[in-house]
Amino acid sequence: IDELLAEGVAGKRIFVRADLNVPLDGTTITDDGRIRAVLPTVKALADAGARVVVASHLGRPKGAPDPAFSLAPAATRLGELLGADVPFATDTVGESARATVAGLADGQVAVVENLRFNAGETSKDDAERGAFADQLAALADVYVGDGFGAVHRKHASVYDLPARLPHAAGYLIATEVGVLRKLTDDVKRPYAVVLGGAKVSDKLAVIDRLLGKADRLLIGGGMVFTFLKAKGHEIGSSLVQEDQLPVVREYIERAEKNGVELVLPVDVVVAPEFPDLKTKAPGRPSTVAADAIPAGQMGLDIGPESRKLYASKIVDAATVFWNGPMGVFEHPDFAEGTKAVAQALLDSQAFTVVGGGDSAAAVRILGFDENAFGHISTGGGASLEYLEGKTLPGLAALED
Ligand code: 3PG
């Protein structure tokens, strides 16, 4: 983007593909981190006199307009953060978008409606995606990719559009890739990776890769119970992915063979049922040994001994990557494990990266100062796929 700015962008229409996929409660944004993350790029372009068209997906609508997934709240918030009037187009490439872009003054920023209201955005059919990319291309002279959270998606606005316009990477993508390179190219050891989240199937590829890369692999969240069951333990009514047991057993063996320390909880916080996250009614928690969860009890967080254990593995590491909460952090009775991991990252002298999505939101929702962490990635799936060593369509398209 610096080269683009040096060439001069005044009067040019610049399409910024951002990731404004923020968590919403109705129309209230509960965490605006992703909007703030794209501000440096948007501001730099606007300050240089560009006419900036910001586009993003939000949620997973089904290729047609759906008011529940409107980008309007994100556009309003972007306007507040910029301290400027940000016009909002009520469609993505239709009459409203064309008129909004045509009406932009130099240095002004507009937002168009959710890209995924158009079936072409996410289509698996190259021609259909290409046709939508053509419509997007008609809105702008130059493309700036800065939606790091979506670079792993082969979508029209991420992959096909940059091929149709002069293109550059924005500041957010440049920062994110710079940080993640430090975890893949010459990582400082000991390298500890903390992985949480509900489903082990989402993390298989990254675990596979890390078994040859990390020194310590700490497992938390719902996927813990598939690991515990694979080791032959009783897990009560906890979440389990039976079909993943063979692969998890293989990982446990491979960790041992490769000298990777695979850390599992020694105790867990359980309850008779999943807590009510809306009312936050008392969750009736109790702590039990991780190798003997009673029948009728469901594991919902790592226990106090595990918190100490995990913290000890984090604080003296030289590099830490964390993705995924340790428990049901949205409920106060099951938030302590996630809090303890966040605190350990802060207490550690390590280079720390919090990998996107739920863990980034958890850090902010639990009241931690996000600036105290080394780097909080805006990409959950994107940062994991980067660590898996995959070619990310949105990065490949910009490297061209
Ligand atoms: C994310 O939230 O990880 C990104 O915005 C990508 O969203 P998606 O998983 O719906 O493609």
UniProtKB/TrEMBL annotation:
It is found in: Cytoplasm. Its EC number is 2.7.2.3. GO terms for biological process: gluconeogenesis; glycolytic process. (2R)-3-phosphoglycerate binds at R34, R116, R153. One of its GO terms (molecular function) is ADP binding. It catalyses: (2R)-3-phosphoglycerate + ATP = (2R)-3-phospho-glyceroyl phosphate + ADP. Substrate binds at D19, L20, N21, R34, H57, L58, G59, R60, R116, R153. Pathway: Carbohydrate degradation; glycolysis; pyruvate from D-glyceraldehyde 3-phosphate: step 2/5. ATP binds at K203, G299, E330, G356, G357, D358, S359. Keywords: ATP-binding, Cytoplasm, Glycolysis, Kinase, Nucleotide-binding, Transferase. Signal peptide: none annotated. Pfam families: PGK. InterPro entries: Phosphoglycerate_kinase, Phosphoglycerate_kinase_N, Phosphoglycerate_kinase_sf. Its main location: cytoplasm. One of its GO terms (cellular component) is cytosol. Belongs to the phosphoglycerate kinase family. Monomer. This is Phosphoglycerate kinase. It comes from Streptomyces viridochromogenes (strain DSM 40736 / JCM 4977 / BCRC 1201 / Tue 494). The lineage of its organism: Bacteria, Bacillati, Actinomycetota, Actinomycetes, Kitasatosporales. The gene is pgk.
